[in-house]
Design a protein that fits this description.
Blueprint lengths: L2 E5 L2 E3 L5 E8 L7 E7 L6 E6 L6 E3 L7 E6 L4 E6 L8 E10 L2 E7 L3 E5 L2
């Protein structure tokens, strides 16, 4: 089965950290550029970060710069999103997507999402 599976979400206090994982099964993630999105209740989906297939290029939305770090381990078929200094406004469902274009759709694969809640 060809799929992306996110994990690592949860409840964390403001200022805390989480590391999200996006693991591919049934295909080679290293052939794809990856983008993390998030969607908060009542808001549109937002692109958070992207990473090129070889891991050399990365990009972040302004609101997470300096706090989030995207990385990948193609040998493990996994992409990560390290989230530090979390804020309540980071609360959302986080999704990863794999596509053939860097930081652009369309996307060939989507994960099911993982909930991140930042609250005291």
């Amino acid at each position: 089965q060809l799929q992306l599976v996110e994990s690592g979400g949860g409840l964390v206090q403001p200022g805390g950290s989480l590391r999200l994982s996006c693991a591919a099964s049934g295909f080679t993630l290293g052939y794809y550029h990856i983008r993390w999105f998030r969607q908060a209740p009542g808001k549109e989906r937002e692109g958070v970060s992207c990473i090129s297939s070889n891991g050399i290029s990365t990009r972040y939305v302004d609101s997470v710069k300096g706090r989030f770090t995207i990385s990948r381990d193609n040998a493990k078929n996994t992409v990560y999103l390290q989230m530090n200094s979390l804020k309540p406004e980071d609360t959302a469902v986080y999704y990863c997507a794999a596509g053939k274009y860097y930081c652009l759709g369309p996307y060939d694969y989507w994960g099911q999402g993982t909930q991140v809640t930042v609250s005291s």
